[in-house]
Amino acid sequence: MSHLGNVGRLKDLLCNELLALLDSLKGKNLLLVWDKPLMTPVNMVVDTNSLKQHKVHTMYSIEATGSIGTVPAECDMAVFLVRPDPTIIKYVATYVNDKSKLPTSKSAAIVFVPNKTIPCENLLRELKVDLNRVQLTEFQLDLLPFDNDLLLCDWPNAFRDYHLKSDISSLHYLSRAIMKIQTVFGIIPNIACKGEAAKRVCDNIIRMRREYDLEDTAAIAPQIDNLIIIDRSCDPLTPLVPQLNFEGLIEEVYRPKYTRIVVSIPRDNDVEERKVALNSADEVFADLRDRHINAIGKLLSKFARNISAQFDERHQATTVAELKKIVSKLPHMQAAKNSLAVFTTVTEKVKAHTESDEYMDLYECQHELVHGYETDRANPFIESLIAREGPLPDVLRLICIQSFCNGGLKPKLAQQYMRDIAQAYGADKLVTWCNLVKAGLIAEQKPGARNHYSAIKTTLSLCPEQLSEEAPADFHYVTSGYAPISARLVQKFSQPGWRGIRDALDFLPGGPVYEAIQKVKGLRQDGPVPPVYSADTKHNLVVFVGGATYSEISALRFLSQSDDFPADYIVLTTGLLSSQSFLDPFIEEINLTNLNPFV
Amino acid sequence: MESQDYWSDVNAVGDYYIRHDNVYTMKFVRHLPNLNSHLTALAQYGGPLAVFRRNDLNEESRMEIFNAVGQLITEFKWTSGNLLTMSWSSTESLVCVQTDGSVLIYQLMGGSPQLRKFYIDSKKTSSEQVASAKFYESQFGTGVAIATSTGRFLFLNGLENFSPKPLVGQEIAFSGSAWRRGCPGGGLAAGPVNPIAAAAHRQPEQQHHDCYAAHDQAEHQLGGVPGQVQHATGQAHCGQHQHRVHRDNLARSSAAVAPAVAAVVLRQAAAVLTVSQLVQRAAVLRHFLADLDPVPAAWCVLAPRPSNQLGPDQIRIFVLSRGGLLLLEQNRPPASLLEPPPAEALTDLCLSLDQSLLALWSEPQRHLTVYSLASGLSASGLPAPLSRHSLAGGPDSAFVGGDGGLLRMAWCANAAVMLVWADQRCLLPTVRSDRFANRLDEFHEGEGDSGAPLLVPEFDGLRLLTAERHDLLRPLPRPVEQLFNIACVSPATVLLLAHDTISGQARTETAAYELFLTIESDADKLAAVRCCLEAARFIAWPPDQKRVLRAARTGLALLPPKYSREHRTDELCQQLRLLNNLRFNESIGLPLTHAQFSRLGLGVLIDRLLNRRLHEFAFRACELLRLSESDGQARVMMHWAECQIDTLPPLVGAGVDIGESREDAQASDALVADIVKFVGQRPGVNYARLAGKAARLNRPGLARRLLDFETRSQDQVLLKLHNMRSELDLAGIMRKQPVAMALYQQAYCASDPAALLDQEDRRSDLAALELRRAFDSTEAARRQELLGSAASRFTEAGLPALAKECQLAAQLLERQRKLERDLSAQQFAGLSLHATLARLLGNGSEKLAESLRREFEVPEKRWWQLQVTALAKSGRFTELRRLSERKSPIGYAPFVNACLDAGNEAEAVALLPRVEREQRVRCLCRLRRYAEAIDFASGLKTDAAYHLEYLRRHLAREEVRQPGQPVVREAAQRLRALHQTMAAGGGGV
Q1: Is the peptide bond before A114 cis (omega within 30 degrees of 0)?
Q2: CATH number reported for the structural domain that contains residue A367 in this entry
Q3: CB contact B805 to A (< 8 Å)
């Protein structure tokens, strides 16, 4: 959706940071030891070839089992690329202290991603690691460029950590990521935020700007107009509602890791496992990703027809020139054919999910709740689901939706649900209930308080009447009927501005609305002229504190394609959520130990 | 100072033209008749003048500090000991040396001094005092060297750095001597003179190491002289001095070699003793030394500079003693530098500022000899003199100097040496020149009896200060000389002349144009411009500056534009403007030449202004010269804020950490408000530093307030932690900082969460924690107990609903344990209520289940669902059938589903007729009776479309899941046909 188009520069920035770090190390030939989970994210910014060009000679990875071998003779330094995780640190410390593995003539370096932490340093000291020989440094991998318009600051549990543990570290990293974006795209003049955590991020970046003293270096003309920061707690509804756009469903069903999924494609009598990276580089996927699942079938068949038509052209080719043209198109056609096969399989699996009886029943229930029908009394479907001991996450999700759409549950209803859950699933689930209450996902209505949901629903037109899945006029198609609040907020920010929806903003939970302006001083006249900046299209950076769903991202993409108001959106989020994964961190698994040792 | 006669104040001295500028007419308010009667110190770079008025009978000693124009900056009572001498350091601190070895360092604005000390009161004698002190500039800052009354030299390099091991009291250790004096018996001078160990003079138990080193060296240098020198103090009799040399000390040398050599040895030893501490240890030698100078006549210090590779703990000293010149150096024997010794007695010496030239004066011969040190010092002594002037009278000297002894002597920028007598002054060129062998200069111009001037050498000239005048002598740079010299016609002169013609009243442009024409080439024009710019830098008088600057601009106008870009005059103009302001604003009185300013740098100049508390002026200067925010204005602001904190009145309250009195709090608030108002949040401002200062001054309240404005969170936190006095205080402050508190709790939670939460009174969290712990416990009784306490915690936290649930959970556990006892070999504890009931139903203990259900008030619908599921799962279909005969509040579809889940299709089919219409299609689908389902759905009066759509989706899914099933395929085909007919029939049922 973004025509800013040079998110690649962020990638270069990060890539150069790591390569410069490697260059600065003393060693001439490096042994690079990977902390396995870091491989995919780091590889998103740096490819193996560039690593090889920057002194990396051999690479090992730390597996869960088994130990890694000695440093090869050619290497004079071992570089550990690790997370600040005590178990990994202990492992590294043992390796470094082992003379047989790392001879005294060789040195080592530990590169912490994304941050060196004091506990880790202390741990290293405790383990008697010679810090004169082992260099400690950090690679601040604060953001991963997922796509041209999607950046990830990888803190999947940010929302939980903030609300349950008051842990603000994710906010710090997110702020740092925004600073990085600002170093590439210039200071963003307008900031708008909604929610407490968003305000904190905003304060952080204003403060960091002062601390880094960017005044002197801010020679880049601003290329992004607005920074819109939205705290997840202002819109906890969207991630609770299952997504029905293609990419969102893939998230729900496949749970991709760093946009990569494994698809089993049936081939002859065999099944081929194929790793697929989901991004806009794939033409077919780029076209499908934001569509409603019911529109996918037709599109796929259209693609199939196109490709077969192209393949058929070769029979009609008579001259050499025509043939040559066709041959040159072949690789492209082959790629399209391959991805067509992949996404057909994916669609089948996704459809099987959405068309199951259980899914349909859940959908109906949540549809009613979101539309605000009879949200103030016990929902019979929820009750029967509990009675059947249906999946607890679904039960909780529906209760959370009901709570939000009713402006909090009535105390009696809350107590009823709580008792139902305790009796059906065990009293230990009360801990989970407490968590959800603490995070504000389940609220109890205060006596005399009004339910503002219908006001919000009207002002933000959350549930417009007309719905077309194949040629939508509005982005509420992403969940079949509910338009994500956050996306509406972003839309209203551009037109007519947040002042026009002040009431709705105040009714939304999560905290205050705050707008700030960053002055851009000291812009050099002879500085680089922004290459793509035009006055017509406003460029926006939308930051989701606590994660975003693909339904929101698709909605924003829909917005930037619509002609009403020319705007581009880049999304930065702490994680990608699905209706499944949003509540998972709150559901506390308590190991129910056997109380009777004799049985 | 008129522009027309610039040359009239220029004197030719040797090859140089020396310009004499009157900088100021002094404005001393209190009359100072003669600076020579007080102890004074005038700083370089137009710095301040310190005058020490020693107490007369009934008055206290006072220190007065004036600026260069004679306005009083500050004064204070002198309460310390006996001041010997003083000087200004390179950072404009007043360094005072007392006779007891204390060094007091005062800031320009007074205040309490820093104290450094030379420890000279050695164990046995307390009579040792500082006899003289010299100050020098080294690469480590300003240094002090002292000579004590017993002839020791001590030094302190880098006075103002807190050097980790100050060199105070370190003695210059030299182990041999090569000094000979020009005395009778100097015939020994021929041939190299070998040093011998001075180790004899040291106590063996003190200086073993030195002794051995010295012996080795001595032996090596003695060469042919055999013998082993033993350590002992000794006496020597030898030569014309008739002193005894101790047998153990120098026996071998005196015995084996000619007595003459021994005499040399002795004299060498004696020379050492003049500057060593050992005098006091050997009575005989002390006697022997009595006829030498206990303190050298004159000396100067060769400071460590990058050029001479001396380290931070090293210096070299030139000493004049008994007319000879010695070089003292650490760990080396003293070297005599004049070979052969000069015939006359040297009485004074003077080293140029850059340490490249050394001038020696002899009295009464009145000879000035100048040596160049540029090629470095060698053991063989000084090179041939650069020049030699005699003031003793003779054919080429018009001047014989003043009466009495020479008072002062100083270099004027390597070009000339100024000699001052009480009544006369004389400027002698560095290099001997035939034309101007020496030249008299009358600087008084008959202004009365102000006495001999103070001399302060600058690197580009020499300052002269009397009670009436402040003058500056500077050799003219070549371009300036070319511009103004009467005898010279250079392009620059033409340019200036042409410019004068244009700007003159006559306005004869043609004449000017013709003049311009005479400068032909661009190179000449450029040279002329450069010359004028150089002159503008040099000239001190603003109208003259303007004149040459305008000329330069005119010249630039004649050149191609690229040159005007290269020669930016605006920056120079601004600098000159600043310098003129500094000089002519007499309350500042800082007369810097442009050359001095360039060398000092703007940063240092700002520092000096700040030292004088001229914040506003400094601020404007930064603005004028566009100094970057952090180097300039922010620094000024910081200094201002620090001064504000410094000058706060003392605390009214107790001054204890937390108990801050109201007045103090108000004062602090007001000050912080002031500071924030003026200083604001500019880059480079560091509130943490201010807070640190406040904390050091024991004002924690102020520090805390200031810290709130610090942007760098790291500084803020570190300082805060540093200031924490106790754990209690820490928690108290953290409670006001939610973020810090959260982090702290997180860190703390790992070790003992309950204690922390209890302390912080977070009841609901504490209750949840208790609940978690209950389910973590492995023992039923313990869990029950913990659930009880969790319940009371929840009640405390105002969450009665959760409390009730906990009680119920505890109650359930109680029942379960009872059940376990009653129905042996079955486990119940830990199960949910549903699971317990299901297990009971599965066992056939319906009665128990029923009573339990009633106790826990399981609602009707859930109870039914529970029964259906439990019965089907445990295969009790008879009971299930019996149940189904009653009226079910949940309908009968759950029965069918439960049977199918349990794999009993027959039972499900049997129950099918009881299933209500809305659920019938679904149940039929589950039973795979698709034909029946289609018939049923299409036969429905209402909702037929919904159910048909359900069927369609279900069939489609089945086709994907199990492709090729004929039942499914047929049903799907039938459904499609039905859809088509319905569509044809006009839009469905």
Answers
A1: yes
A2: 1.25.40.850
A3: yes
Mind telling me how many Å the CA of B192 is from chain A's nearest CA? 53
Q: Pick B856's closest partner by Cβ from A213, A357, A423.
A: A423
Flag whether residue A161 sits within 8 Å of chain B, measured between CB atoms: no
What is the per-residue pLDDT for A404?
92
Residues A59 and A151 in one domain: no
Amino acid at A501: I
- Residues comprising chain A, all counted: 599
A446 touches B at CB < 8 Å: no
Whether pLDDT at B728 is above 60: no
What CATH number does residue A190 fall under? 3.40.50.1910
Which distant-in-sequence residues (6+ apart) come within 8 Å of A155 by Cβ?
A161, A169, A170, A173, A174, A574, A575
Token pair listed for A9 = 């520069």
Query: Does some domain include residue A595?
Result: no
| Mean pLDDT, residues A146-173 taken together | 87
Residues whose CB falls within 8 Å of the CB of residue B650, separated by 6 or more in sequence, listed in order: none
User: Quick check: A422 and B629 CB within 8 A?
Assistant: no
Same domain, yes or no: A362 and A350: no
pLDDT tens digits along A203-237: 888 888 877 765 555 557 788 889 999 999 999 99
A186 with A206, same domain: the answer is: yes
- Across chain A, mean pLDDT equals 85
Best mutation target, B784, B833, B836, B923, to test chain A (most A CBs within 10 A) = B833
Asked if residue A445 has pLDDT above 60, the reply is yes
Residue A589, number of CB atoms within 10 A of its CB: 9
Q: What percent of chain A has pLDDT over 90?
A: 26
Angle (nearest 5°) at CA B384 between B380 and B389: 140
What is the model's pLDDT at position B776? 83
CB contact under 8 A, B835 and A426: yes
Residue B682 backbone dihedrals phi, psi, to 5 degrees: -95, 155
Q: Which of A307, A334, A355 is the last residue of a domain?
A: A355
Which has the higher per-residue pLDDT, B353 or B439?
Answer: B353
A571 phi, psi to nearest 5 deg = -110, 130
Name the percent of chain A lying above pLDDT 70.
Answer: 93
- Residue pair B441/B427 in contact (Cβ under 8 Å)? The answer is yes
Task: Go through chain B and tell me how many residues it has.
Answer: 989
Chain pair A-B, CB pairs under 8 angstroms: 145
What are the structure tokens assigned to B934, written together?
Answer: 């289609």
Tokens (6 digits) for B906: 């027959």
Q: What span, in angstroms and rounded, lies between the C-alpha atoms of A482 and A292?
A: 13
Residues 755-774 of B with CB under 8 A from A: 764-765, 767-768, 771-772
Does the residue A591 lie in any domain?
Answer: no
* pLDDT for residue B403: 65
Q: In sequence order, which residues have a C-beta less than 8 Å from that of residue B191 and are 6 or more positions away?
A: none
Structural domain includes residue A458 = no
Rounded to whole angstroms, the Cα distance separating B259 from B239 reads 7
Sequential DSSP letters for B508-529: -HHHHHHHHHH--SHHHHHHHH
Q: What range does the domain containing A287 cover?
A: 251-355
- Please check whether residues A74 and A110 belong to one and the same domain: yes
Reported ipTM: the value is 0.84
Q: Where are any strands of DSSP class E within A161-239? A: 190-194, 226-231
Q: Note the pLDDT of residue B33.
A: 60
Residue A260 lies in a domain: yes
Q: B92: closest CA among B123, B125, B65?
A: B65
pLDDT band at A580 (very low <50, low <70, confident <90, very high): confident
Domain boundary among A451, A470, A488: A451
Please give the tally of structural domains in chain A. Answer: 4
Return the number of other C-beta atoms located less than 10 Å from residue B384's C-beta: 7
The beta-carbon neighbor of A431 closest among B742, B768, B954 is B768
- CA distance linking residue B430 with residue B420, whole number of Å: 16
pLDDT the model gives residue A391? 92
